Amino acid sequence: MFHDGKIWIGKSGDEKISIYPKMANRHGMIAGATGTGKTITLKVLAESFSDCGVPVFLADVKGDLAGMCRPGTENESLKKRIDALGLMQEGFAFRAYPTVFWDVYGEKGLPLRTTISEMGPLLLSRIMDLNDTQTDVLTIVFKIADDENLLLIDSKDLRSMLQYVSENAKEYALQYGNMSKQSLGAIIRAVVALEAEGGEYFFGEPALNIGDWLCTDCNGKGNIQVLDCQKLINSPTMYATFMLWMMSELFESLPEAGDRDKPKMVFFFDEAHLLFDSAPKVLLSKIEQVVKLIRSKGVGIYFITQNPKDIPDGVLGQLGNKVQHALHAYTPAELKGAKAAAQSFRENPEFDTFDTLTQLGIGEALVSVLDEAGVPTVVKRCTILPPQSQMGALQDEIRSSEITGNLLYTKYSDVYDRDSAYEFLQRKALAEEESERKAAEEAEAEKARKKEEAAEKKAAEKKEAAKNKEVKRAVNRVASTAAGTVGREMGNELGKKIGGTFGKKLGGNVGASLGRGILNTLFKL
Fold this sequence. Notes:
The chain has 525 residues and is an alpha/beta fold. It has helices spanning 38-51, 76-85, 116-128, 132-147, 155-167, 169-176, 181-202, 236-253, 273-276, 281-293, 313-316, 332-343, 353-357, 396-404, 409-412, 421-498, 500-524, and strands at 2-3, 6-12, 15-19, 28-31, 56-60, 99-103, 110-111, 224-228, 265-269, 299-305, 321-324, 364-368, 380-384. Strands 1, 2, 3, 4, 5, 6, 7, 8, 9, 10, 11, 12 and 13 form a 13-stranded mixed beta sheet that branches. The longest helix is centred in the C-terminal third of the chain and has 78 residues, at 421-498.
C-alpha cells in the first residue's frame, strides 16, 4: 500500500515498515527459500509503486503475477491477516491495477521485440555462447555492417551478413583483420540455433520503445508491465541476456535525473541468479556498472532470488532496501549462506538475526530499508501486507481481452520487415548473378561469332583455292593448245626442210608434243 507518502511493506508490531519513494531508486532485493512469500512481497511492492504513480516492470516466471489486472477476493487466510494488521482502518481495499502484458513469443502478451543492432555483439555472444575469438569476429561483422550502412534488424539480416563476410573474407582481411571461415561458420550455426529457440520472434520490428513503459493511467497510477517468462525461462541464457539488455537500454536512453521525489520506473527481476550464473567477467562488469549508474537516471532495480549469495558482491553492495524471507540451514552450505545473509543486515539488539532468519514463518521477513538520509535502518522482523489484486494465474480469456483492448496493441501486434541487410544483400547477389549471366551470354556469343567468322574464312579460302585451281587448269588447257599449235607450225617448217609429206606430218606431230611438254614443264615449275 502507498500510505502517508511512503511505500508500505508491512508491520513490525505496531510500527509500519516503509520505503521512502525518494530512496526507492537505491535498488533492493527480495530473497528467501521457495514458498516463503517472495512473490507476495513483490506484488505488494509493485502495487504500492503503482499507487505512487511509478511505472513498474515485472518478470512473471511462474505465471502468478498476471492477476494484478483484477481485484483480489477475500478468503479466510487473507481475512485473518487483514484483521491482524488492522488494514481496514488504514483504507485497505481489493482493487485492480493498470496492467500491460508482454511476451517475447507473442503468445501471452504483446510481442516484445528488439533489433540485432540494439542488442549488440557482446550480448549476442553471451546468448550464443561464443568464445573470445568468435566474439571478436562477430564484433568485426557488426563494424563492417555499420561502415557499409547495412541495417541489422532481425536474425536473417545477421545470418546473411555473416555469409557475405565469409564469402569476401580475403577482401576484408587487410582493413579489419583475418576472419577464419571456421569462426564465421560456427557463428552462423549459433544464429540458426538461436532462431530455433525463438530468436526469430525476439529480433524484429517494431522494436520496443522504452518510453511506452514510462506511463501512468488516467487515474495517475503507474502502469505495470508484466513480461510472461514461463516459456522464456526454459532458455536461461536468453532470459538473462534479455534482462541485461533492458537495463542497458534504460541506462542508455534515459537522461540524467538526479535526486527525485520518486523513481521514474522500478524493475523487478525474478530468478535473478540466472542473470549472473556462468556470466563471463566482462558481462558481470557491465551489470555492476549499469546497477551503479542507472540510479542517477531515476530507475530502481529489485532482484528476487532464493539466497543473497546468488548475487555478486559488487551488485549486492548497491542494494539498499532488503526484504529477506526465511532461509533453510539444513546443510553446511545452507548454514554458511544463512549466516552470510544475517551478517549483511545492520544488527538489531532486540533479537539474534541469524536465529530469527531461520525461524521466520510464511509471510514474515527481515526488513532493512534506507531512511531519509540514505542510511540503512536496523533490521526489523516484519509481517508483510497482503496484496490488493488477485492472487494466482489469470484465465486465458481475460488475458486475451486485456491484450487486445490495450492501446499499445495496434502498435506492437503486427511485425513488419523493412529494407535491411538481408534485402540489400539479396538484391546484390541477384544483380551479381544477372551480371555473371550476361557476361557468360556475351562470352558465348563472342565465341560463336569467332567460330562463324573462322568457318566463313575457311570456306572463302577453300572457294578461293578451288577457283585458283580451276583457273590454273584453264590456263594449262589454253597454254597446252597454244604450245601444240606453235610446235606443230615449227614441226611443219622443219618437215618442209626435211622434205615430203611424211616429213611434214612427222615434224608437225613431234613439234606439237615437244611444245606441249615444254610448256607443261614450265607451268609445273
